[in-house]
Write a structure and sequence with these properties.
This protein has about 200 residues and is mostly helical. Helices cover about 60% and strands about 0% of the residues. It is built from 8 helices and no strands. About 35% of the residues are buried.
Length: about 200
C-alpha cells in the first residue's frame, strides 16, 4: 500500500448528521464513555445499531474493566494488531501500550514482527500465550499454566477474550478498509495474497 494514499472505506460509514435515532443513541453512549470518540470498527458496526451497541459494551469491558493490568492487556492487543497487520488497531494501541509502561524497544520489536527482549516474565508469558494462540489456535500447557497461575482462572479467560475481540476488530478494520486518522500513514502491507504475519 502506498503510505501517501488516503484510504477510503469500502462501505458507507454513517455520518453524524444522517444517523437514525438508534445509531445516534449508540454513538452518544460511546462518546460519553471512556473512549470519548468513535473510530475504528464501531464506525462500521453502526450500520447495525444493535450489533454496535453489544460491540461497544464488550469492547469497553475488555479494554477497561478486566482484572488484567494495562501493560498486559495492551501487550496482547498490539501483538494481535501486528499478527493481522491492522494499521489502525496498531496506531491506537501502540500509543496506549507506551502509556501503560511498555518500552519503545518492545513495541518496535513487535512492529517488526521480532520477538522482544523481556525483563518481566509476566509480559513474556503473555506475549507467548498471545503469539501461540494467534499462530496455531492453541496454547501449550506450560505457557497456559504460567499465565493462569499468575493471573488466575479469571485473568487467563479475560486474556483469551481480549485476543479474540481484537482479532475481530482487526479483521473488521482490514476487510472494510476503515480509514486511518488524518495524517496517519499505513504501516503494514496488506495485499490480499500476502501470508499472515509470522510473529517472532
Amino acid at each position: 500500500m502506498d503510505n501517501k494514499t488516503v484510504q477510503m472505506a469500502r462501505i458507507a460509514l454513517p455520518d453524524l448528521g444522517e444517523m437514525t435515532p438508534d445509531q445516534q443513541a449508540v454513538f452518544d453512549a460511546v462518546v460519553s464513555g471512556p473512549r470519548g470518540t468513535i473510530i475504528g470498527p464501531l464506525r462500521a458496526a453502526l450500520l447495525n445499531p444493535t450489533l454496535a451497541d453489544r460491540w461497544q459494551k464488550l469492547g469497553e469491558t475488555l479494554r477497561f474493566k478486566t482484572s488484567l493490568p494495562k501493560n498486559i492487556s495492551e501487550l496482547a492487543i498490539i501483538t494481535t494488531a501486528r499478527r493481522w497487520a491492522s494499521d489502525l488497531e496498531w496506531i491506537i494501541h501502540q500509543a496506549a501500550a507506551l502509556d501503560a509502561g511498555l518500552s519503545p524497544d518492545m513495541t518496535e520489536a513487535i512492529k517488526q514482527a521480532v520477538r522482544p527482549e523481556f525483563s518481566d516474565p509476566d509480559e513474556e508469558n503473555v506475549y507467548l500465550f498471545t503469539r501461540q494462540l494467534l499462530q496455531t489456535g492453541k496454547v501449550d500447557d506450560a505457557v497456559y499454566e504460567s499465565v493462569r497461575l499468575r493471573w488466575t482462572d479469571v485473568g487467563v479467560m479475560e486474556l483469551t477474550a481480549v485476543i479474540g475481540y481484537y482479532s475481530m476488530v482487526a479483521m473488521t478494520l482490514n476487510a472494510h478498509k476503515i480509514p486511518l486518522p488524518n495524517g496517519a500513514a499505513a504501516l503494514f502491507h496488506q495485499a490480499s495474497d500476502e501470508a499472515l504475519t509470522e510473529l517472532g
